[in-house]
Design brief:
With about 550 residues, this protein is α+β, with helices and mostly antiparallel strands. The protein is about 15% helix and about 30% strand. The strands form 5 sheets. Strands 6-5-2-3-4-8-7 form a 7-stranded antiparallel sheet. The protein has a 6-stranded antiparallel barrel with strand order 9-10-11-14-13-12. Strands 16, 17, 18, 19, 20 and 21 form a 6-stranded antiparallel sheet that branches. The two termini are about 25 Å apart.
Amino acid sequence: MSEALRTRLNLLIATTIAFAFGVGLASVLDLTPVSIAADTDRDPGWVVGAPSRAAVTMEEGFSDVTRRVAPAVVTIYLTAEREVTEGRFPLGFEPPPGFQLPPGFELPPGYGPPSGDEPPAEDESPEADPPTLRDSWSGSGFIVSADGYVVTNNHVVAGAERIDIELHDGRVFEDVELVGRDPQTDVALLRLEADDIAVLPIGSSDATAVGEWVLAIGSPGFRAVSGPLLSSVTAGIVSAKGRNIRILRNRSPLAIEDFIQTDAVINRGNSGGPLVNAAGEVIGINTAILSTDGNYQGYGFAVPIELAREVVDDLIEFGEVRRALIGVSITDVDAADAAFYGLDRVGGAKIQTFSFDDSPARLAGLEGGDVIVGVAGQPVSGVSELQRRIRAFEPGETVELDVVRRATLERDRARVRLVGAEDDSPPRVASRPEAPEPTGDVLGLEVRDVADLAARERDRSGIDPGFTGVLVVEADARGAVGRAGITPQGALIVDINGEEVRTAGDYERIISVFEPGDAVSLQFSFRTRDGGWQNAFRSVVIPER
């Protein structure tokens, strides 16, 4: 491996996910749902851009689009009184091991690495109330209607007690209204009372292709240090679409991540600002970065404007987001799945479990292992796009899903009546096992017949008395299952290619016909953290010997 490649791999491995943003070091991501009184008119007055692309010349660069867009971009100042907690960094800002602050940079009071050995001050007692700090930070936003609606990120405004907005022309509006916010998409909506304001036209992230020019506009920096760099413009391209970096989903199971990736420079304070195309139309909200130190390293992410628009419309009409669900736990389709299901491309979302007994998807006849490849006639590339397409519908509406059945490998359609997120409940998992002795095979597994386990072993492992099947004892990392990145030790194999596995004999008979290059679908039952068991569907390809 070359030294350059090794360096790049080390960088990727060391990468930590951090918000990029107005929140700076003084804010913690808040996932508490917020409900605020709604306006009567749902439409804020969106200005939709023309479906054309402006030409970018070497002489003018992006000067024309910048002149038109910058007046609609705002800087947001936020303040709140917070407890000073020694030794804690906000979520997403924990520094990597060995990280040291640059010369001349100081953390806000109360923030820093834990020392653990400093005695309390003489005039303090262990029971004393923690000190408080009047904290301030900044972010960005953009005006989307003549009525004064301003779109930004949830993490920019979360926890703020006061919000002020400075326009591009220098006008400042104090204590502006928070209309509502949605932690699951990281979108928030503000409103200011102002006349003669610029409005940013809305474009389409769906119609934007990878490789197109984009601009990120915002006000990076810290007000407490030297003030934000107002209306800074950076240029780049759309690097990818439909990215899921799990920065939201790790904190909320209902989070929707369908980010636009860009290499336009984004830093703290840029969060909430617009990502615009060469025609000056906003296609996304600059939201997050991947970085080892919290600063820009080439990987920026923006919330697609289509998703943000749906959230904003709900906040205006209902004061909260009404999220529609089909009631499933899903994973992205990979190359092995595409081979097994006979898909013409690697795309779709595979059902793993149902969120609750009367899940809409289950009531519509869908089964675990089925792959959803389309919504209302529109293809879906993966989990993120499926979530976003479902988000376009309201609870109570019926949506038609295109699926490929695991049982028959045939395409089918299912009509699913959507429910609201408030009707959702945690998944209910069945119970089942744990480990012991082997038989080698083409899947690279060693398994044991569960029927051979003594009653005492069954009780200790939590296996239902009537259960039969095989238990994975070991997995060869070079085998078909190991190469797929699956760690199945201690898991049950429930079926293979839709055929039930009740005994080790069943297992050996089924796998005996497999040849190198065959695509195989396995249904495992994995132990969950709460001691139960949950089904999961994985596809693998038998490697060459």
